[in-house]
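Re-running the complex after MR caught last week's input typo. The corrected sequence lines follow. Everything else is unchanged.
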Amino acid sequence: MRDHPLAQLTLARMREFYREPEAIFWVFGFPIVLAFALGIAFKNRGPGELKVGVAQAAKGDSALAATLDRSPALAATVLDTGAARVALRTGRIALLVVPGDPLVYRYDSTRTESRLARLEVDEALQRAQGRADPLLARDERVAEPGSRYIDFLIPGLLGMNLMGSGLWGVGFSVVQARTKRLLKRFMATPMRKSHYLLSFVLSRLTFLFVEVAALVGFGWWIFDVGVRGSVAALAGITILGSLSFSGLGMLVASRARTIEAVSGLMNLVMLPMWILSGTFFSYARFPDAMQPVVRALPLTALNDALRAVMIEGAPLLHLGAPLGVVTAWGVVSFAVALKIFRWR
Amino acid sequence: MPAIRCSSLGKRYGDVVAVAGLDLTVETGECFGLLGPNGAGKTTTIEILEGLTLPDAGEVEVLGMRWGMGHDRALRQRLGIQLQETQLADKLTVEETLRLFRSFYRDAQDVDDVLALVELEEKRRSWVNKLSGGQKQRLAVACALVSRPEFLFLDEPTTGLDPQSRRQLWDVVTAFRARGGSVLLTTHYMEEAERLCDRVAIMDHGKIIALGTPRELIASLGAEHVVEFALADGAGRAPSVDELAALPGVQAVRPAPDRCALTVTAVHRAVPALLALLERRGAELSMLATHHATLEDVFVSLTGRQLRDA
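Corrected-run output:
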């Protein structure tokens, strides 16, 4: 069994991969670093305390600042005219209150934070002057896992990683073997071509397990990102996605003779999907005219399927459309790659 | 039945004719050498015979079989092939590499035995990129031998190797032949061809220009020794080709820009006569050397060019 050519080829693939520290980092480390950095940066802490300034005046400025400070949403400081102008321009304060009659709110109305500050400051000051609200309302706060940015991000990173490792893992090794004439050397043996191609797929699947477990485990441990659907469904989708991108990698590498050529092709294939396929932000932001194209991309379909299972807990049966797209890409690229593959 | 037979082989790449109507027969049990300068068409020829390159014209028969008739893989089971400039995977060990190649063959040799054959036992756990040039080349030959081949193809197996590594590889080939294997090798080292080959074909511009045993080819020069000399600049007048040809024992004169080579039957008569002639002309020697005629001299006499820089 161990001496079967497919087993030996797959072992060789795996050894070449795990003996390359850079590859290990890009496949396992990088997505986790990215998830961590983005998870921290976009943590759902709301706007927090808004920083506002009160312009120095002959009288009343500190009283005004004290009133504003009492509001839990605001932090106010008294600033002289020069410092206030700089602080406002550089965004260190969201709004500047200039005491006087009438009171002046100086702020940039295109900044969400500043407009929020305008509402909070006005409310705090008007209430302090005794304004009564004619309408009674009660706040009910919601912070449900599943609706945070990190919940959106983790499945997207998973999809992106499946694409990257599928394309690079297959494409790079194939072209390297071709440049080093190793491919030709293999063709001089009775090795079956199908065994050679299959060995890439098999070694990818082995590492896939580690890859998915690392990222999903990390999301769960640090950010409490759960998998609402079944783990089996998630496994099925990642395997399908990985196979599909291996096929695409094979296609990209099928003719290229140099590492430079294949790197260029890889970026040409991946770059549009990084931007369009809703990895970091929803693809609904793109105009309607682009939607059919965006939805037809394999990474879009894979991300949709991953999010449906992880966030919404959808069963596999409901994911026919995106999984169909992923499968079609894989089958077509594999078939074309086999047809045009340069073996020498 | 000959091990390899090919006739009127032709191959061109665009405007460049790599092989121009080549006929060749390699007998079973024979070691046959294809000699020639770079670009003579040696590699194209050997790769056509290996079934890796499709010829434009001609017939090829290897071990009684033809390529592309649906049993290529069966034929490959019986061949051992070392390609020029193959770089094996850097981060696999010697043993892992051999085990991989071994897995492609039905009746393969033990990894330990092959390692012993090429004397790489101590390196079995080294990564390929940690090996020296000679060790890498021996590993490449080991990958060809692991199939227990009937026929071994070697394409410039010792190019770029130091003399000691070269001799180690010669031993490997000699041992393979001792067990009844046939070999086709290409080389541009004449010494290698003389040491290893029963017969050699000298190739130039895609054609065979001479064929025979190394001894026959050297004998075709008509003399066994070569005297080479060069003159110091500006002193006296250089003798003409006719004057040199008239010296006793000289068979042929081959003038070159920086030196002149005489093919001679008897060094002890030709050299004193040459010195006397130069003395009369007031010419001064800057170099004088003699050696036994080699295949290199055969090539030079056939093409008028040196083999290495042709």
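None of the earlier attempt is carried over here. The two ends of chain B are 36 Å apart (CA to CA). The mean pLDDT of chain B is 89.
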